Target: VPS37B subunit of ESCRT-I b
Amino acid sequence: MSGFENRLQSYSSTQLNELLEDDDKLRGMVREMEEMQDMQQNKELTIASNRSLAEQNLNLQPELDHQKIQLTKRYCCLQDLHESYQLRRSTLGNSSLDTLLALLQTEGAKIEEETENMADSFLDGSLPLDSFIDDYQSKRTLAHLRRVKIDKLREMVLKGVHLPQGSSTDPSQPQETHNSSAPFQRLANGSPAHVRPAPTSQASAMPYNPQSTSAPLPNTVPSYSCPHPQALPQEPGAGLPPRAGFIIQ
Model:
């Protein structure tokens, strides 16, 4: 740029006026500048680089089209699988284990029958060896898989049948709690620790005592059961006089 300024400074006023009127000569002088030459060179390099990148992109266009087609196919397959999953999920939610077991047993019996018919056809000579090996092996594999599924599903059904029986044992817990509190009642009444409980008929023959039914148990007696209580005598509660020959249950 400094060389161009020095060149203009050497011109006279007449030459400068002529240069202003001659556009071609002015453009030529601008082209001869070093800055413009460097800029032109960079422009050509950039154009060549862009052309090379465009050619590479065009070469990759067939692969891009192929990948787009594969993506479309896989997306369609994914939609089909999702619809099948939703259908099976709704069917499974509306069906019971017994129904599924019956359907699976039917399919298992069908594949067993198909393999037996195939074996009979091979023994009769109506089925070639190559097709028999491939088809029979695949069908037997499917039959074994269904047999395993049937066994697992039958086990689940049996476990489901036993679930209500486990829940029916819950009402017995209050009875166990009542029986476990008997040793503490015998100790509170001053009876020996190893005396067997009296029969039900003997307990029912006891005379009615309103004070004994309304009096609460002592606060020192815990409410939980203990397998080996300490045989320490305690003071009888108020309104509970000891009775000879009777053990309160």
Remarks:
- The CA atoms of residues 153 and 159 lie 10 Å apart.
- DSSP finds eleven helices and no strands in the chain.
- The first helix runs from residue 2 to 9.
- Residues 70-94 form one domain.
